UniProtKB/TrEMBL annotation, chain A:
Its main location: other. The keyword Acyltransferase does not apply. The chain crosses the membrane at residues 360-380. InterPro entries: 4Fe4S_Fe-S-bd (IPR017896), 4Fe4S_Fe_S_CS (IPR017900), FDH_Electron_Transfer_Unit (IPR051555). Coiled coil: none annotated. Residues 23-52, 177-208, 209-238 form the 4Fe-4S ferredoxin-type domain. The keyword Metal-binding applies. It comes from Brevibacterium pityocampae. Residues 98-126, 237-256 are annotated as: Disordered. This is 4Fe-4S dicluster domain-containing protein. It is found in: Cell envelope. It comes from the Bacteria. Keywords: 4Fe-4S, Iron, Iron-sulfur, Membrane, Metal-binding, Repeat, Transmembrane, Transmembrane helix. Residues 105-126 have a biased composition (Low complexity).
Length: 384, 371
């Protein structure tokens, strides 16, 4: 059992007074219905212009494409057959067996509703050895018959028949077909690549620990676009990133484009946060797939939820960004995914480039010294 | 069963093949597997809208975004290196009393830096805000440090070049009492520009590598050496083009050293990268440019050694070296842009390094966890 890595507070790192907790999203894709209300609410609140010319992209029900300068929430649609579901379930199971970071000892992590005295302990769970790390949740305290039923909801107490060791704990039948729907958003990384490489100071860390662009400062140099390991931030223009074509001779729709030529991305509705409001996407989400709150609460709910799903045999469930030891120091927006991250268009092992910057500067220093030495050598040898 | 007569027009049902679950998802990068008539033909089951797909990426869409950097930035990479190397040659010429070499390299340094700055500003999304680069000094931002570096270099190179221009024009510039000051400042300014020249030539390598771009980031250990070598051969080539051979011996030596360094660093860089990260460097338009850069560098290097003493031959060799350097910069920039188009360049190396860490027993730092 690895000890739990500690989250760094990005707002405190830049000397914000500790008035606000770090805020974040928990996007639970297992209860997303793909309604795209988040996309619409985001566009409306932030007055973002349209992307493209309403083309059909031929990718299931996703005609948005991806996150960009004008799209700060993007709902991915993936259709999968039985085979892919089984593969996802298997890859999730392997994550468990690899001993991924866990929260404390299993005994301390029984289901939210489990009474302290209830003997749902490790002894009973030992019967189902592969899911031992679930700490008693697997021993029949949660119904395994219905993986998508109401019992799968967040925060529903996992109390069932205590000590029902004879209940069949085999994973439920794999469905023939499923849709993965996932609302993607800026990760608001603990160590944000875009923020680090911004030369003007247009990008800054807010008191809520989020990363925001000041549109009146950004001069559109584009370094942040390359600095983001998730491909979130983008310059709002017709440059090499997203050329907008004239289709059938039709001109692009006339529209008001605010902050043209500057970098744009999700602000986690900074303007709403300062007034104590919930971000537009989370506010509008009808299934509570997008949850908003204090970042530590979000991580806790995410961890509860994934344990819950594993206990029900849905071993394809996994968290993305909930590990402060990962390459970006953990993300402010945590996701629960039902397959490998790359299936959703997320990088499998992102790393903030500035992590290697000291070595890069050292290498560059050696190279520069070599150039000076080569020139000196050239003049010394040229004397004769 | 269906009762609709139109169902008889559907293609015959094909059995869904079951592939092994145990097959590792990272072996090969499968895309859409087109298969006619996937699904059932009696309408009793849900028919997928998209044909049977094997996903290891999201519809093959990019994961990281390319920066909005066009040819202007590639041109700046070349001009910045040329300016830095020329200033360094100018300092050497200044110290060893080579008047003609000093004059041509100082003028080249200012011209290249000035043109490069214009290219940089024109590539901004909001060019009128270029001075916002000077709002802050940020050690984590190579672009910020580079802006200050370019500003300081250009100022120093400007003073040194102004003195040369004044001398060329026979003191006809309307300077008045400032002429003495300019003449006195030219030496220290030339030295200053020379010392800032090497950092100016190399910082752009850090600027490219300090990104999430798969090819540039993977090049971080060798790209600085590629860029200083490229700058050396370019500035040496420019001196051969502009200056009489009697004074260009050091420039020729530097150019040949640059060719050697360029070839070695480039080869090492490509060998140490993950194949998926190196691929854009030897395929497509970028690959063609880099291949020609290599050929021209070799040709220019040989020309420098063999015909460096002949004015015409030296000029031709210098031109070949300049073209080689420019092609190297354009090739590296375009390869990086290209590497973001296919998510394979991102996914494969990342999965490989994740698997390597897991194999080594490091399991605590994955972004994917289960609670």
């Amino acid at each position: 059992m690895t000890t739990r890595p500690v989250w760094t507070d990005p707002a405190a790192e830049v000397h914000w007074p500790p008035e606000h907790a770090r805020k974040g999203f928990f996007t639970d894709t297992s209860i997303c219905i793909g309604c795209k209300a988040c996309e619409v609410a985001c566009k409306e609140w932030n007055r973002n212009p349209t992307d493209g010319d309403f083309e059909i992209l031929g990718s299931s029900y996703d005609n948005t494409g991806g996150l960009g300068a004008n799209t700060w929430r993007h709902v991915a649609f993936i259709e999968q057959d039985r085979e892919r579901i089984e593969q996802a379930r298997e890859s999730g199971r392997r994550l468990v067996s690899l001993g991924m970071p866990q929260v404390g000892p299993p005994e301390a992590r029984t289901g939210p509703g489990a009474a302290p005295g209830a003997d749902a302990g490790p002894g009973a769970a030992a019967a189902s050895a592969p899911v031992d790390v679930l700490g008693g949740l697997a021993d029949g305290t949660v119904s395994t018959a219905d993986p998508t039923g109401p019992g799968a909801g967040m925060g529903v107490p996992g109390t069932g028949v205590p000590g029902a060791a004879g209940v069949d704990t085999a994973p439920p039948d794999t469905p023939e077909f499923r849709w993965l729907m996932s609302s993607d958003v800026c990760k608001h990384c603990t160590h944000a690549g875009c923020l680090d490489v911004c030369p003007t100071g247009a990008l800054f860390r807010t008191e809520f620990g989020t990363v925001v662009v000041q549109a009146d400062i950004c001069n559109g140099c584009g370094t942040c676009v390359a600095g983001c390991p998730f491909g979130v931030i983008e310059r709002r223009d017709d440059g090499t990133v997203s050329p907008k074509t004239d289709r059938d001779g039709r001109a692009r729709r006339e529209q008001d484009v605010p902050h043209a030529g500057t970098a744009n991305k999700c602000t986690l509705c900074y303007d709403r946060l300062v007034d104590g409001l919930t971000p537009a996407c989370a506010k509008t989400c009808p299934t509570t797939s997008i949850k908003f709150g204090d970042h530590s609460d979000m991580v806790d709910s995410a961890e509860d939820r994934v344990r819950n799903l594993h206990a029900q045999g849905m071993t394809e469930a996994r968290l993305y960004g909930a590990n402060p030891a990962d390459g970006v120091g953990g993300t402010g927006s945590v996701f629960l995914l039902l397959d490998e991250p790359e299936v959703y268009g997320l990088p499998p092992d992102p790393r903030v480039p500035t992590k290697d910057l000291p070595q890069m500067f050292a290498t560059a220093g050696i190279a520069a010294a070599g150039m000076i030495a080569a020139t000196a050598l050239a003049f010394l040898s040229g004397r004769s | 069963m269906t009762l609709s007569e139109f169902d008889s027009y559907r293609p015959p049902e094909t059995r869904r093949r079951r592939r092994s679950v145990l097959r590792a998802p990272q072996d090969g990068f499968a895309r859409r597997r087109r298969r006619p008539g996937a699904g059932t033909n009696d309408g009793s089951r849900e028919m997928p809208i998209v044909e049977d797909v094997e996903f290891t990426s999201y519809y093959g869409r990019p994961i990281v975004k390319p920066p909005p950097w066009g040819h202007e930035i590639a041109a700046y990479l070349f001009l910045g290196g040329l300016a830095g190397g020329s200033a360094l040659l100018g300092l050497g010429a200044q110290l060893t009393g080579r008047g003609a070499l000093r004059r041509s390299t100082r003028l080249t340094a200012l011209g290249a830096a000035g043109a490069g700055a214009v290219f940089l500003i024109s590539d901004l999304g909001r060019p009128e805000r270029f001075l916002h680069m000077m709002r802050t000094v940020k050690i984590t931002s190579p672009m910020s440090l580079g802006s200050w570096l370019l500003g300081a270099f250009s100022s120093a190179a400007g003073v040194a070049a102004a003195a040369e221009v004044d001398r060329l024009l026979g003191s006809r510039l309307p300077l008045g009492p400032l002429r003495g000051l300019l003449r006195g400042a030219a030496g220290p300014a030339g030295a200053c520009a020379g010392l800032l020249g090497a950092p100016l030539a190399v910082y752009t390598a850090v600027l490219l590598s300090d990104t999430a771009n798969p090819t540039w980031n993977a090049a971080r250990r060798e790209l600085p050496f590629v860029f200083v070598s490229s700058a050396s051969l370019a500035s040496g080539g420019m001196a051969m083009l502009t200056t009489a051979p009697s004074q260009t011996v050091p420039a020729r030596v530097l150019a040949v050293l640059g060719v050697g360094g360029d070839l070695a660093a480039m080869a090492l860089m490509q060998r140490r990268m993950h194949p998926a990260e190196a691929e854009p460097l030897h395929t497509g338009a970028a690959g063609t440019k880099l291949r020609w850069a290599e050929r021209l560098a070799i040709a220019g290097g040989i020309g420098t050694i063999v015909g460096g003493g002949n004015r015409m031959a030296a000029g031709a060799a210098g031109l070949a070296l300049l073209t080689a350097s420019a092609l190297t910069r354009f090739g590296v920039l375009e390869a990086g842009i290209e590497s973001t188009r296919d998510p394979r360049h991102v996914i494969e190396p990342q999965k490989a390094r994740l698997a390597a860490r897991r194999a080594a027993g490091i399991t605590h730092d994955s972004i994917t966890t289960t609670g």
